Each structure stands twice: as structure tokens, then as C-alpha cells.
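Lab notebook, bench 4. Continuing the backlog of folding jobs that were queued last week. Each job is logged with the same field layout so the records can be merged later without manual cleanup. Today's entry covers Zinc finger protein 726, a 214-residue chain. Filled in by technician R.K.

JOB TYPE: sequence-to-structure
TARGET: Zinc finger protein 726
LENGTH: 214
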Amino acid sequence: MLCRERNFLKELMPTHPAEKPHMCEVGNKSFVRKSCLKNHTLIHTREKPYVCEICNKSFFQKGNLIVHMLIHTEEKPHVCEVCNKSFVRKSYLKNHMLLHTGERPYVCDVCNKSFAQKSYLNKHMLLHTGKRPHVCEVCNASFTLKDQLNKHMFIHTGEKRHVCEVCSKSFTQKGSLNKHMLNHTGERPHVCEICNKSFSEKSKLKSHKLIHTG
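JOB STATUS: finished
OUTPUT FIELD FOLLOWS
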């Protein structure tokens, strides 16, 4: 038997669960199989040998490339048994299921507010740290969330994507459109606790209260 064949068979042979003879020289992490160590070292070298032929995005491991290809094929093999919504990754389905179960396993250590997904908790934590990592390149205004920065940018671009279906008036932000719609519906959700007079906008109620306070 050739040496190369012996080495190949040796790697395929089952190893004792506690035995991990292949150790990473950089991070001291050990592995059962040499092939696993080889894949792991790509993290340190930053080499991404597996490249998508469609969009040229590269990956450390072949398995990640295979999952990525589902985006291009639009194949979503992981299906929710409750609402039949499908997902590319099993992890996406797992996160989605929390919406049905109502489970919120990720809890804020500061205020005990809980979240269904870890990414939501990470965004929430920025409120406590005061960090504003998303900075406007035009006026240097900073924001906690990227979504907030995206909304802010409409001020500079002048883009008004939110259009009233009744009168075609357009707005930069959806919140402004929602306020405007109250003019058409006649709804006045903001009520004065003293005289019961109602207003379509909270700011108008606030101004009205000055009459009572003097």
C-alpha cells in the first residue's frame, strides 16, 4: 500500500472522541481530523479559495459556498411548518420559529428587555452604550442604527419615497406620511386629559396643554 493511501485511510479511521491530535499553531485549537485543521487555518491566513462563479463572492469553506449558491438558484429548502415560509439556511428558519413560539431568549443585562434574535439585542445595546457608529458623510450627524442613517440621508438627497394615496403628496419618511394620513381619515388619537379636546398630532396636543398650564 502506498504511503499516500495509508495516510488517507488513517484520516478516515474513527478517532477517540477525546483525542484531537491536529493542533493549530496560531490559536492552539485542536481537531480530530487533519482536513478540519486545514479548513480552520484559512481563518488565520484570510484565504478564501471557494469562489462563487456568479457574483465572485469568496468563502473559507466549500459548505458555505454551497449554501450561498441557494441565493442565486432561489432554492429555499427549509420550510416553516406553521406558515409555510421558506428559508435558505436552517438557522434562518430557527430564528423565524421564535415569532410563532413567542420565545425571546436574548435578554439585555441592563434593562432586562428580551428579544427573539441576537441581532436585535445587539442593536438595542447601542442605546445603553451611547455609541453612534453610523455617521453621515455629508453633515457628520451620527446614529445608533444604520436604518436611522438611511432615513436621515433622504434629507440630503431630497428623495420622497412615501406617497399619499389620497392626494399624492410625498414625504421623506414614513412617519411623516402616517401623520399626514390623519388629515384624510379625521382621526384624532391624541386627547387632552383636562378638557378631552383631541388632536391629530402629538405636537399639537403639547402646544394646547400650555393653555391649561399658563
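OBSERVATION: The chain has a mean pLDDT of 80.
SIGNED: R.K.
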